[in-house]
């Protein structure tokens, strides 16, 4: 296997934190062979060591573990709530405390929930100290506008 770059793969923090659409595709588009190829690419090309899945129901977890990834499940059903973002931030803090870890966060697609959580993490981790700048940067990274639901997930620096 040579590997296949996952759809929508982008670095949020270069070489440390990335996101993409669900590995292997979503719903009827999901393909086991594609998933395997994407896992090879994530490991060999991107150097990902840990996958944080925001999907519910343990989807693909066994495949990720079999491919050698550490896996953390933080199911986010529907639009994320502040408690969801805090849980994801805590998981990311724990993983990224180890400088050798490279993390991929995913859900079915890179929606406002994923983008808002990752934009919020930039503020939470003190990489940015402004909500507006975090929203602008995450929009640039993911290549699309961030809606009000996603913007609401970006905490003010005073609350982190």
Structural commentary:
Strand 1 (10-13) and strand 2 (17-20) form a beta hairpin. The mean pLDDT is 93. Strands 1-2-5-3-4 form a five-stranded mixed beta sheet. Helix 3 crosses helix 4 (112-124) and helix 4 crosses helix 5. It has helices at residues 32-44, 61-66, 82-96, 112-124, 131-142, 148-151, and strands spanning 10-13, 17-20, 50-53, 70-73, 103-106. The chain contains six helices and five strands, in the order E-E-H-E-H-E-H-E-H-H-H. 39% of the residues lie in helices and 12% in strands. It has 160 residues and is of the alpha/beta class.
Observed structural traits:
single chain, 39% helix, 5-stranded mixed sheet, 160 residues
User: Helical content, roughly?
Assistant: 25-40%
Strand order of the largest sheet: 1-2-5-3-4
Average pLDDT over all residues: 93
**Number of extended strands:** 5
Element string (H = helix, E = strand): EEHEHEHEHHH
Q: How many H/I helices?
A: 6
Gap between N and C termini, in Å?
43 Å
Oligomer state of the chains in this structure: single chain
What structural class do helix, strand and pairing data support?
A: alpha/beta
Strand composition percent: 5-15%
The major β-sheet equals: 5 strands, mixed
Low-confidence residue ranges: none
Fold topology:
Layout (H helix, E strand, L loop, with lengths): L9 E4 L3 E4 L11 H13 L5 E4 L7 H6 L3 E4 L8 H15 L6 E4 L5 H13 L6 H12 L5 H4 L9
Parallel strand pairs: 2-5, 3-4, 3-5
Antiparallel strand pairs: 1-2
Helix pairs in contact: 3-4, 4-5
Q: Care to give the gist of this entry?
A:
The chain contains 6 helices and 5 strands; from the N terminus they run E-E-H-E-H-E-H-E-H-H-H. By secondary structure, it is an alpha/beta fold. The protein has a 5-stranded mixed beta sheet.
